[in-house]
Specification:
- With about 160 residues, this protein is mostly helical.
- About 90% of the residues lie in helices and about 0% in strands.
- It starts with a helix and ends with a helix.
Amino acid sequence: MSAALITATVISLVGLVFSFALGYMAGTADELFRHTSLAFFFTMITLLAHSMTMFYLIGKGRAIRDAVTEGGLTTDAGARVSALRRPVFKLATVAIALTMATAIFGGGVDTGVLPGGVHAMLAVLAIVANVVALRAIVDAFNKSSRIVDEVNRDLGV
């Protein structure tokens, strides 16, 4: 599951970067429509990937706490997994908010209410936030896998 979530996050990030490039190169109405359509699609994929990652980390923490309790182990594995998800939640939430704001303000650019520079600046910030969130996600998944291995070893599994 973690590989699928990382893959979805990478695909969404690549899609956002591609949409960003299309926006700068758009010269006709058809090219602008392509930029808008792809950006909207990849915004939705980004929101889905980050949301599912958060739910996955919640579930993994719960599973580890249950295994520790049922196995009668004396370990802080549950607390360590909870600590791993905090930075992911913070960074993914910022990435979601910036990605959504970019999409919303893109509508303002399309209607002529906002200058394109505001939308472009938000797009750059959203892409950077998604890169930072991806790094935190990969780190949390790696560390949580090690914790699961440790608990399994202590349980004799």
